[in-house]
From TrEMBL:
Its EC number is 4.1.1.19. Its cofactor is pyridoxal 5'-phosphate; Mg(2+). This is Arginine decarboxylase. PANTHER family: ARGININE DECARBOXYLASE (PTHR43295), ARGININE DECARBOXYLASE 1, CHLOROPLASTIC-RELATED (PTHR43295:SF1). It comes from Rehmannia glutinosa. It is an enzyme of class 4 (lyase). It catalyses: L-arginine + H(+) = agmatine + CO2. Pathway: Amine and polyamine biosynthesis; agmatine biosynthesis; agmatine from L-arginine: step 1/1. InterPro entries: Ala_racemase/Decarboxylase_C, Arg_decrbxlase, De-COase2_CS, De-COase2_N, De-COase2_pyr-phos_BS, Orn/DAP/Arg_de-COase, PLP-binding_barrel. SUPFAM superfamilies: Alanine racemase C-terminal domain-like (SSF50621), PLP-binding barrel (SSF51419).
Length: 628
C-alpha cells in the first residue's frame, strides 16, 4: 500500500485489507470496519460466468459506488455549512453539479436525490445537458438552481425560459454579450421574467494547466466594459431586477487557497459593484476548480495535486466573500459552487486486466542454438565472438558486452545483405541479452498488455498528460518483483501508460500468475464523458455496487454490459444487421450446403457482433446469441 501511496490519494475511501486486496469504504471516514467492500470480490461477481454465479460481464468494468458519491456531496455541503456557521456568514450554500463531468443518468439522478435535502442543483453547458438537467431536477428540491452556461442560441435560451415556466429555478448565465438580446426578445415572446446571471472574466489567473480558462485573455465571460453595457441595457428595458447572479470560473484544479481567495475576492468586488449599480443580486457562483489530490502529495506546485482540504477550500471561499461584502456593507449572497471533479472523481473505479507481459526470458538461447550460431560465423564476426569469449574468461564484463553488441550489429548487416539466416539473427539477439542479463544491465522494464483502450477510458492521459493512481487491486500483501509500463489494445503507439503518480516512469508490478486485475482510481470526472472510439473500442461495462447487510457484503444493484462490436460500428454509420446479412449470404454461398457448417460460421460471426470489442474470456462466445 505504501508503495502505491494508497493512503495519500485513497483517503478516506480506499485502503488495503488483510487479504492484500483494495477495500472500498463506501461511507468514507464514517465506514465501520465490517462495512468495507473487497473490490476483487466485486470484480469476480461481475465478471465470473453466469453458470458459476457471476454476472458474466466482460472487462474492463467501471465499478460505481453511489454511497461514495453521496458521501462526497454531503462532505462538500457540510464543509460549507461549517465555514458559514463558524464565520457568522449570513446566507447559505447551495451548490450545483456541472453535468459535463459525468452525464451518466444514475450519477446525475443520484446527485439530485442525495442533494435534495440541501437544495443541490445542476449546471448545464449545452442543449442536451439542459434537457437532462431539466428532467432530472423535476425530482429535486424546488429551490435547487439550474445554472445554464455555455454558448447559447435562440433554441437554448427558449428551452431555459421554458424551464422557468415549469418552476425550475433556472438562471441564464450570459457568457457572451449577444446572448442578452436573445434573452430579452424570447422572454418577452414567452411572457416569462428571466433570471439572469453573468459570467465575469476575472483578472486573477492560475498558472496550472487549467488556468488558461481565466485571466483577461481567457476564453469565456464578459469583460468589465461588457458587464457595464449589459447593466445599462437591462436598465433601459427595465429588467435590471432580473440580474441576480454573478458567475466566474478560475479554472479546474485551483492549486492553492491563496489563489482561490484572490479570485473569489475579486469576484466579490464585482458582485458588490453590481449591487451598487442597482441589480437585485442574490447569488455568487464561484464556478468549479475545487481540486483533487491525484497523487496524494498535497502539493500546490503540481497539476495533479492540490494544497488544501475540502474544509480549507470552503473556509477560504466564505472568508473571501464575507470580508469584501462586510467592507462594502453588502448583504451576504447565497453561495454557489459548480464543483464537478471533487464530487464525482472518487465514486467510480475502472478495473481492467493485465493479460500478458513481454518478458525477456522469451529470447533465451539454448547452448545448442549458440553452438550452431558460432559454427556459422566467419571473418570479422568470428573475431568479435573470440574477443567476446576472451573478455568473458578474463571477467571483463563491459568489454564482453561491447564485443557482443559489435557481433550483433555485424549480424544485422549480414542479414540485410541476405547472407545470414533468420535463426542466426535471433541467436545474435539472444547472446546479447544473455550477456546484458548476466552483468545486470538488461532493461528491467516489462511491458504489461492490458485489456483496455486508453483513448476510450483514460482520454486525459493521452490528451493532456493527466495522471491517475493506477494500481493492482489484489496481491498488495506481496512484494512486486518487476517494474512495468502498461500497453493497451489499440494499434497506436500512444496507447500506453508510461508515466505514473510520484514522477515514476514505470509501476511496481507482480509477475503474472493467473488473472491480474488493476484499477484506475479517481477517474469518475471527465474521463467517461470524453472518451472516444479509437480502433472502435467502446466504453467499458458498468456495475453499481452498494454495501448490504452482513459483514463485508455488497449488492450489485445494476449491471450494464459495455457497447458491443455491433453498437460501436453503428456509431460510425455502419449497419450491423445488414453487415450480418451480407456475411451470412457469403457463408451460404461458400459452405456447400453443409447445414452444420453454415450454422457454426454464422453463429461465430453473430457472436462477434454481440460481444464487446475487448479481449474476451475463452468461453464467452455465446453461440445461441444472434444478431436481430
Ligand atoms: N463550471 C465551469 C464553467 C467549468 O468550465 C468547469 C470545468 O472546467 C466546471 C464548472 C467544473 O470544474 P471542476 O471539475 O474543476 O469542479
Amino acid at each position: 500500500a505504501m508503495l502505491y501511496r494508497v493512503d495519500g490519494w485513497g483517503e478516506p475511501y480506499f485502503a488495503v485489507n488483510s487479504n492484500g486486496n483494495v477495500s472500498v469504504r463506501p461511507y468514507g471516514a464514517d465506514t465501520l470496519a465490517h462495512q468495507e467492500i473487497d473490490l476483487l470480490k466485486v470484480v469476480k461477481k461481475a465478471s465470473d460466468p453466469k453458470n458459476s454465479g457471476g454476472l458474466g460481464l466482460q472487462l474492463p468494468i467501471v465499478v460505481r459506488f453511489p454511497d461514495v458519491l453521496k458521501n462526497r456531496l454531503e462532505s462538500l455541503q457540510s464543509c460549507f455549512d461549517f465555514a458559514i456557521q463558524s464565520q457568522g456568514y449570513e446566507a447559505h450554500y447551495q451548490g450545483v453539479y456541472p453535468v459535463k463531468c459525468n452525464q451518466d443518468k444514475f450519477v446525475v439522478d443520484g446527485i439530485v436525490k442525495f442533494g435534495s435535502g440541501f437544495r443541490f442543483g445542476l449546471e448545464a453547458g449545452s442543449k442536451p445537458e439542459l434537457l437532462l438537467a431539466m428532467s432530472s431536477l423535476c425530482n429535486g428540491s424546488p429551490e435547487a438552481l439550474l445554472v445554464c452556461n455555455g454558448f447559447k442560441d435562440v433554441e437554448y435560451i427558449s428551452l431555459a425560459l421554458i424551464a422557468r415556466k415549469l418552476h425550475l429555478n433556472t438562471v441564464i448565465v450570459l457568457e457572451q454579450e449577444e446572448e442578452l438580446d436573445i434573452v430579452i426578445n424570447v422572454s418577452k415572446k414567452l411572457g416569462v421574467r428571466p433570471v439572469i446571471g453573468l459570467r465575469a472574466k476575472l483578472r486573477t489567473k492560475h498558472s496550472g494547466h487549467f488556468g488558461s480558462t481565466s485571466g483577461e485573455k481567457g476564453k469565456f465571460g464578459l469583460t468589465t466594459t461588457q458587464i457595464l453595457r449589459v447593466v445599462k441595457k437591462l436598465q433601459q428595458y427595465e429588467m435590471l431586477d432580473c440580474l441576480q447572479l454573478l458567475h466566474f470560473h478560475i479554472g479546474s484544479q485551483i492549486p492553492s487557497t491563496s489563489l482561490l481567495a484572490d479570485g473569489v475576492g475579486e469576484a466579490a468586488q464585482v458582485y458588490c459593484e453590481l449591487v451598487r449599480l442597482g441589480a437585485c443580486m442574490r447569488v455568487i457562483d464561484i464556478g468549479g476548480g475545487l481540486g483533487i489530490d491525484y497523487d496524494g502529495s498535497k502539493s500546490q506546485d503540481s497539476d495533479i495535486s492540490v494544497g488544501y482540504s475540502l474544509q480549507e477550500y470552503a473556509s477560504a471561499v466564505v472568508e473571501a466573500v464575507r470580508t469584501v461584502c462586510d467592507r462594502k456593507g453588502v448583504k451576504h449572497p447565497v453561495m454557489c459552487s459548480e464543483s464537478g471533479r471533487a464530487i464525482v472523481s472518487h465514486h467510480s473505479i475502472l478495473v481492467f486486466e493485465a493479460v500478458s507481459a513481454s518478458s525477456h526470458d522469451s529470447n533465451q538461447i539454448s547452448s545448442h542454438e549458440l553452438q550452431c550460431f558460432v559454427e556459422r560465423l566467419t571473418g570479422e564476426a568470428l573475431a568479435d565472438y573470440r574477443n567476446f569469449s576472451a573478455a568473458a574468461i578474463r571477467g571483463e564484463y563491459d568489454t564482453c558486452l561491447l564485443h557482443a553488441e559489435n557481433l550483433k550489429q555485424r549480424c544485422v548487416d549480414q542479414f540485410k545483405e541476405g547472407s545470414l539466416e533468420i535463426e542466426h539473427l535471433a541467436a545474435a539477439d539472444g547472446l546479447c541479452e544473455l550477456v546484458s542479463k548476466a552483468i545486470g544491465v538488461s532493461d528491467p522494464i516489462h511491458t504489461y498488455h492490458v485489456n483496455l483502450s486508453i483513448f476510450t477510458s483514460i482520454p486525459d492521459f493521452w490528451g493532456i498528460g493527466q495522471l491517475f493512481p493506477i494500481i493492482p487491486i489484489h496481491r498488495l500483501d506481496e512484494k512486486p518483483s518487476v517494474r512495468g509500463i502498461l500497453s493497451d489494445l489499440t494499434c497506436d503507439s500512444d496507447g500506453k501508460i508510461d508515466k505514473f503518480i510520484g514522477g515514476e516512469s514505470s509501476l511496481p508490478l507482480h509477475k503474472l500468475e493467473g488473472p491480474y486485475y488493476m484499477g484506475m482510481f479517481l477517474g469518475g470526472a471527465y474521463e467517461e464523458a470524453l472518451g472516444g472510439f479509437h480502433n472502435l473500442f467502446g466504453g467499458p461495462s458498468v456495475v453499481r455496487v452498494s454495501q448490504s447487510d452482513g459483514p463485508h457484503s455488497f449488492a450489485v444493484t445494476r449491471a450494464m454490459p459495455g457497447p458491443s462490436c455491433g453498437d460501436v460500428l453503428r456509431v460510425m454509420q455502419h449497419e450491423p444487421e445488414l453487415m450480418f446479412q451480407t456475411l451470412k449470404h457469403r457463408v451460404e454461398e461458400f459452405a456447400n450446403g453443409d447445414a452444420g457448417s453454415i450454422m457454426a460460421l454464422t453463429n461465430g460471426i453473430a457472436c462477434s457482433f454481440n460481444n464487446m470489442p475487448y479481449l474476451a474470456a475463452a468461453d464467452s462466445c455465446r453461440l445461441t446469441a444472434a444478431v436481430n
